[in-house]
Write a structure and sequence with these properties.
Blueprint lengths: L1 E8 L3 H24 L4 H21 L2 E8 L5 E7 L22 H4 L17 E7 L11 H6 L7 E8 L10 H9 L4 E5 L9 E6 L4 E3 L4 E9 L5 E9 L4 E8 L3 E9 L5 E8 L13 E9 L3 E7 L4 H11 L4 E7 L22 H4 L4 E4 L11 H14 L2 E4 L7 H4 L10 E3 L7 E7 L1 E3 L1 H5 L9 H10 L3 E4 L2 E4 L4 E11 L2 E11 L2 E6 L16 H14 L4 E2 L3 E6 L9 E7 L12 E6 L5 E8 L6 E6 L5 E9 L5 E8 L13 H11 L3 E2 L4 H9 L7 E6 L4 H20 L4
Helix pairs in contact: 1-2, 2-15, 5-13
Length: 732
């Protein structure tokens, strides 16, 4: 650099005139003092020293500075930023014909900006740096603020910035903050907007929602959502292609300018990992085909759920429930029939056990427990066993079904820790419930109409018709109302009290598990005229719904489950792990970690904390930042055990094809920085505008002498010397 140095004063007219008057007044007063002393030499030197001090003070009052001005030797820079995020692949830059054939992607439209020959005429005066703007960290979104702010950190002075983008920023802070910094640095930003302000005719597969796993031989429901910006409704055939070569199709009527949700069904026959791809044919006049497809993975496996049914006497509801569960090939059933009055528990075949599980390790093998008309009585349940059942639901994600009966034994359960799990409040004045000669009917609530538990037909309309035609019940439990936090799926169609309709079918989440209350004992009557069609389906759905979360991933000594069971993007996910030691006992304390690898490859290790010593439960929370398949490795240092699994995060990627461009963002950046908004077909104007930019001003370094500590110290020293000289000449 060429450097020159010189002093400079930052004075005003008032400060200059005031300083001159003060110096003149000091000189006049000093002369008078010298003459009054009889022209003593010491007084004369003292007054001259006073005049010097006042003159120095007057100079400092006018803010003297020492300036070093440097001219840079290197060329100033012009930074060209080109957006390369996925949204730039949207094909909505129309050619002169305005047809799909002439349409370009946004990336193709700005391709010339990234070519070095475009800026060749500027290389004599400027250093041209072309940089790409990719997605934000770990594929989360596009950040325009960070690259704009970073252009000032390159070392060489920057004269201008060219930004070619669609303006669709969705990560980080607003780019206007970086624009303010560039404005203060005197750097204009010239923006080139790519893409259409309005969404062009398009049909997009918005979501394909698959469960974590499916069961071989069981029908899998696959909801999907389409979003249309087409002006007219049209019919199309969606195709679901499975990686084994199977195809499922469905006719769908796509609503105009909105979203359409429908369901596909697929019945896998073999186990394994599958990839499912949903494709929608291109609609008439649609310009963008790239987002007409969505892919998601699913694991199909064999099912073996362990269910325990505990009952007092073999009433009809119990008999048909036992038959339904024992004939289900995916369920391993155990029945405990206390049968008060007999010398021993009831039984008769291999489904029966002789006593309640003797310890936590035995009880923890069950995925779902049904409690019939049983209570805390001699020869039935004990308070300790009720505490175990509570822990099984809360800590091990098992399901618990309450099925009270006319003997009212369920009231004694409310005196144990199971009271906290009960979904409803009961009327203690009517322990035996209510019977009637006239059959009562269920009526589904709005929540019940959407629930998978109550889905006895494939469509919502058919399902409502089925429930209307089900045979009624002639006894129901003495229910007052649902407890806060419970979800009521079905109510008594005719009977109500001061709290509203009586809830007879209600669910509740407790800890990691689920609880169901069935307030009648007449579900076995649903077999009338249709055999097991609805009865078996209902109880099979109950068992699988309650056991689903618990069986997400399990190994020999570990089990991993999470809630919600269909994770959503940026929604907090509760990770729960049950860990056993080598002997099969729950691990009380230990170091349990989960390594989660996102689809982009970004890995995060989470340490799970122990939640009590009795059940071996370890928990943590994780917030997914990316949609797609996440690989999980669960490990325990003490046992050496590992468990590998995965979960699929639902949600829309922040970078989506087909969204409208946001040129208003680019316009704001240019306005703040005093740049220009230019059209993509006028690149030569951009080059010419940059060529007309003036050379960068010299860099100045200013040393403010008037406030420098060394100057202040010198003034204090001179004033001290002046005070000493006054005493020396005898003025004190």
């Amino acid at each position: 650099m060429n450097t020159t140095s010189f002093p400079r004063f930052e004075f005003t007219t008032l400060s200059l005139i005031g300083s001159i008057l003060v110096v003149l007044a000091t000189a006049v007063l000093g002369w008078q003092a010298y003459r009054a002393s009889g022209y003593r030499r010491g007084v004369g030197w003292l007054e001259l020293f006073r005049l010097l001090l006042v003159t120095l003070g007057a100079l400092l009052f006018n803010q003297p500075e020492w300036v070093e001005r440097s001219l840079p030797r290197q060329k100033p820079a012009v930074v060209v930023l080109v957006d390369q995020s996925p949204s730039m692949q949207t094909r909505d830059v129309l050619g002169s014909e305005g047809t799909r054939a002439s349409a370009q992607t946004r990336a193709e439209a700005v391709a010339g900006v990234a070519q070095p020959e475009t800026w060749e005429s500027l290389t004599d005066r400027f250093e041209v740096r072309v940089q790409g703007i990719a997605e934000g960290a770990a594929g989360r979104g596009t950040d325009l603020n960070t690259p704009l702010a970073a252009v000032l950190d390159g070392g060489s002075p920057v004269r201008g910035v060219v930004l070619a983008s669609d303006g669709d920023w969705n990560e980080g802070v607003a780019p206007s903050q970086a624009a303010v910094k560039l404005r203060l640095a005197g750097v204009p930003v010239f923006t080139l907007a790519a893409g259409s302000r309005t969404r062009l005719p398009d049909l997009e597969v918005l979501s394909l929602d698959l469960p974590t796993f499916g069961i071989a031989g069981k029908t899998l429901r696959i909801p999907f959502t389409l979003e249309s910006s087409l002006p007219l409704e049209h019919a199309t055939t969606v195709v679901l292609k499975i990686s084994d070569g199977t195809e499922v199709t469905r006719e769908v009527r796509v609503a105009p300018m909105g979203r359409t949700t429908d369901v596909l069904t697929w019945k896998p026959t073999t186990t394994g990992d599958y990839s499912l791809t949903l494709t929608v044919p291109r609609a008439p006049d649609e310009l963008l085909e790239e987002n007409n497809v969505a892919t998601a993975p699913v694991t199909i496996r064999e099912e073996k759920l362990r269910v325990l049914v505990v009952e007092s006497v073999p009433r009809w509801e119990y008999r048909y429930l036992r038959n339904a569960l024992s004939r289900d090939p995916g369920i391993e059933l155990s029945c405990l029939l206390f049968h008060p009055g007999l010398g021993r528990v009831g039984g008769g075949n291999r489904d029966y056990i002789k006593e309640f599980p003797a310890g936590l390790d035995q009880l923890s093998e069950y995925d779902v427990v049904f409690l019939g008309d049983v209570g805390i009585e001699e020869g039935q349940l004990t308070p300790e066993q009720c505490r175990w059942l509570k822990g099984l639901v809360e800590q091990q994600a098992s399901g618990l079904v309450f099925m009270p009966g006319w003997q009212g034994r369920q009231f004694s359960l409310l005196e144990t820790e199971l009271k906290e799990l009960y979904p409803v409040l009961l009327d203690e004045g009517q322990p035996g419930g209510w019977g009637s000669r006239t059959p009562g009917q269920f009526e589904l609530t709005e929540l019940g109409q959407r629930s998978l538990l109550t889905r006895l037909a494939d469509t919502q309309e058919d399902n409502a018709e089925v429930w209307e035609g089900l045979p009624g019940f002639q006894w129901y439990a003495p229910v007052l109302r649902a407890r806060p936090g419970s979800e009521v799926l079905g109510v008594h169609k005719e009977i109500s009290n001061e709290f509203g309709r009586l809830p007879l079918l209600a669910t509740r989440t407790y800890g990691a598990g689920k609880v169901l209350f069935m307030g009648t004992d007449g579900a076995w009557r649903w077999r009338k005229g249709v055999e097991d069609r609805y009865h078996y389906r209902f109880w099979g759905q109950v068992v699988r719904w309650m056991a689903y979360q618990r069986n997400m991933a399990r190994g020999e000594t570990m089990r991993l489950y999470y809630a919600p069971d269909q994770p959503q993007l940026k929604q907090s996910l509760a990770l729960n792990a049950n860990v056993m030691d080598r002997s099969g006992e729950p691990l009380a304390t230990g170091e349990v970690t989960a390594r989660v690898v996102a689809p982009s490859g970004r890995a995060e290790t989470i340490r799970l904390s122990a939640q009590g010593e009795e059940w071996g439960l370890f928990t943590a929370r994780y917030t997914p930042q990316e949609p797609g398949r996440h690989e999980v490795t669960l490990a325990c240092r003490q046992t050496g055990g590992t468990l590998e699994t995965s979960f699929f995060v639902q949600g829309l990627a922040q970078e989506r094809l087909g969204k409208p461009a946001r040129p208003e963002v680019l316009e704001e950046i240019s306005r703040i920085t005093r740049g220009k908004v230019l059209a993509l077909n006028r690149l030569e104007e951009v080059v010419q505008t940059l060529g007309n930019l003036p050379d960068p001003p010299p860099v100045e370094r200013r040393l403010q002498l008037w406030s420098h500590p060394a100057v202040m110290a010198a003034m204090v020293a001179l004033l001290t010397l002046f005070w000493i000289l006054r005493k020396w000449v005898g003025l004190f």
